[in-house]
Amino acid sequence: MAQSFRETLKSGKFVVTSEIGPPKGTNIEKMCHHIEILKDKVDAINVTDHQSSVMRFPSIGGCLEIKERGGEPILQMTCRDRNQLALQADLLLAYVRGIRNVLCLTGDAVPVGDHKQAKGVFELDSVQLIRTIKQMEAGTDLGGNKLDGEIKFCIGAIVTPEAKPIEPQLIKFEKKVEAGAEFIQTQAIYDLDNFKKFMGYARQFQVKILAGIVLLVSARMAKFMNDNVPGIFVPQNLIDELASVPKEGALKKGIEIAGRMIAQIKTDSICDGVHIMAIGKEEVVPDILAAAGLSNRIES
Amino acid sequence: MKSITRQKPTEEIEQQLKGMERVYIIGCGTCATMTKTGGREEVLNMKERLQGLGKMVTGWSVIPTACDEMTEASLKEISGTIKSADCILVMSCAVGTQKIGSYIAKPVIPAVDTLFIGVEDGVGCFHEVCAQCGKCVLGYTAAICPITACHKGLLNGPCGGTNNGKCEIDKERDCAWTLIYQRLKEQGRLNLMKKYQPIRNSQVMPRPRIVKIS
Q1: What is the pLDDT of residues A154-181, one digit of tens each?
Q2: How close is the nearest chain A Cα to the Cα of B10, in Å?
Q3: What is the CATH number of domain A5-291?
Q4: Whether complex ipTM tops 0.85
Q5: Where are the domains of chain A?
Q6: Residue B163: which of A112, A125, A230 has the nearest Cβ?
Q7: Distance, in angstroms, between B178 CA and closest chain A CA?
Q8: For an engineered disulfide with A73, which of A66, A139, A281, B54 has Cβ 3.0 to 4.6 Å away?
Q9: Which range of residues forms the domain containing residue B80?
Q10: Rounded to whole angstroms, how far apart are CA atoms A200 and A204?
Q11: CA distance A101 to A76
Q12: Please, which residues 189-208 of chain B have a Cβ atom closer than 8 Å to chain A?
């Protein structure tokens, strides 16, 4: 049997995770294709949970498809859509079906998504969700009642190292680690010097840090993210680099940039691994890994 | 503190008044007057709009404070004119509308939507400061309410959607947790933000909430 993700984290190797986004609808062909591409190339695959508050096929459904294909899923779980009962019930289902990793998130706000009149639940926040899992692992639900059967997860959370101001984010980061987060996947980072500063601080905690790598596919996308995505800052030199190549070469350039960053993170041992987000271009993740010099990493 | 209201679209008011031709309009002299949604001027404007829709306005009045006990007496005074109406169109907050509905046997129709309990922050600018959640956390949050001022009502610090002190849903809105952080820092009380806040009790008092003072 393949190594569990927790064992991989503990092994000390350079960890690589990636993620897939489930479809809007029942046609899961493309998602399954992405799973096939990624499952033997990365250590675990996140499945997003109605990312950007856009209703989709559920994260847990995507995780089950990964399991069936022999991959290692990370269940993304937001607090936006479920109250205490629903969150705990989904965790029970996930465990019974062999899902062992959960990424605890607050979740995007409802008005940014495609169901603008929906109720945002947010009964729990990400820190409380981590604590909920720990409480369930200890044998009781949030009502204080005994659970029949064991439950155990490798718990992850996120942090935004580029946020301004950074200190409130760091306070929350510490609360997540204290609550029981074993790994952290960061929001996209592009400025490695700034990220090194964050790591200088984060190293004091017993938690594995995977740097978020979002594939840049054009200078326009980079500028758009700078203007619209909280906590993402693409430096001008990278935007210029993307703009310097013809339009049809931009994706290749983006792959090169992502590969270069990953290689540097690994060579300089900046953190424990990377989380690659290709956002719709999952089929090029193997190319990113190749550009980083990390091909065939699972087999090796 | 005021009950902040917004007038419903004319089409919705018309829909509610379907089949009722004779309308009596009641405004409120307190909150709805201050928010310009149900004061004298707005009531007279509504009268014209209803007449434009072919309705007969049998009369109108502005009750001093529609949610108050005195409303019963005010309604008695105007009971003669109300009698000939098919319904009452109320331009006060939902509290006043319910109060009026409890005294009158006729259909009572709201002309406004009640948005929140707010304070006036600068002339004509109202904002929500308390969600009346029943379990006050202001002692830990530098007297800024995260249940109300944070879009997600988070208790343990900001989400990842905050950007330069602004909120994910609107670049014009402040991130409550950035404000809380800044104030706690100024007060040398950041340790309060580092403290874990447990899951909020959503059933402090199951709805409908009732308090009886013995």
Answers
A1: 999 999 999 999 999 999 999 999 999 9
A2: 21
A3: 3.20.20.220
A4: yes
A5: 5-291
A6: A230
A7: 7
A8: A66
A9: 2-116
A10: 8
A11: 9
A12: 190, 193-194, 196, 198-200, 202
